[in-house]
Amino acid sequence: MTLYILCFILFLVGLYGLLISRNIIKIVISLTIVEISIFLLLIMVGYISDGIAPVVFDAQILENQAVVDPLPQTMVLTAIVIALATNSMILTMAIRLYKKYGTFDVHEISKLKG
Amino acid sequence: MENHALIFFIVLPFLAAFSIPLVSLASEKAKAYVVAIVSLVLMVLSVQGLFGSAETTIYAVGGWKPVDNIPIGIHLVSDGLSRFMLLIVNAMAFFCAVFAIDYIKNYTGQKYFFTLFCLQLAGLNGAVLAGDMFNLFVFMEVTAKASYALVAFGVKKTEIEASFKYQVMGGLASLFLLFGIAMLYWMTSTLNMADISMVLSNSEIDHSNTLRFIQLFLLAGIGIKKQAITFYKGLPAVVTCWWVTNGIRTHDPQNHNLML
Q1: Nearest residue of B to residue A47 by CA position?
Q2: Closest Cα in chain A, distance from residue B50 (Å)
């Protein structure tokens, strides 16, 4: 249970950083922390203590050995690829923003009202 | 009942998206017509589906059959709501594509625009048809990535700023959604939507508190992502290309002078 609570605290740390930081790069880092906490949660959902990797070796081994759930691991793999796309795209935008505005401060990057 | 037409809604736009750079090598004019033709075909298919038989149809991708009554593999499901949504999405895509043939001539990087347009169409169709939660998430991400790029398409100061804000909000929203899906999987051990409802209705344990927690996360995720009413303030008006499948959009005149 402690692990799940720690994972949720990591989620909240990322969320706090996202809300509070002014630097664009720090915002991206906070977003990544939130991502990581959710990947951790997904892996923990599928984990069984003393379980082996979900690769089929032999019917006999499977009979007396618990196997961890492979589906959350697949989901995490897909989500990592999506997160890679998110991060690279958002950093590209950060570079372009720095070139246009000359600053990383979100309070100065405010031509829009939103 | 099986319906093989469903897969075309996802395959055709993806095929068009990745063949547009090749097509534009052969002929510069053809690429706009490729998008228009693809979305016309899809619109005709969706009209046909709307006036066809009323029963729910399923397409199992890869032909995976259920094992011990537990569905495995990816399913595309078309019921009354998703048929209606498909018609809305594809009809709007067709009109946008026809409008874009002339409109986009004033801009550079046309093939990128049409590629992103097709990716967005594929993502929206997939999100409407998806039969399991994780597929819904993946297709929403495909749509979101394409729309982030489309918002910043003009690479002006304001457009890049709008895209950045949209990406931060959208990234957070998709993570909320993923969190909700992870909790739902934890509770029910399945991702298939029909199976989830079966498990929840047959379960003897009272799940209502956990469900409320999950619902909150899913609502926040979808709400921020689709810019629904209470989540709208603070987002830039990124309404240019974001035709929404589900979600309520309010019009805020203060934010209107940004993108259009």
Answers
A1: B186
A2: 33
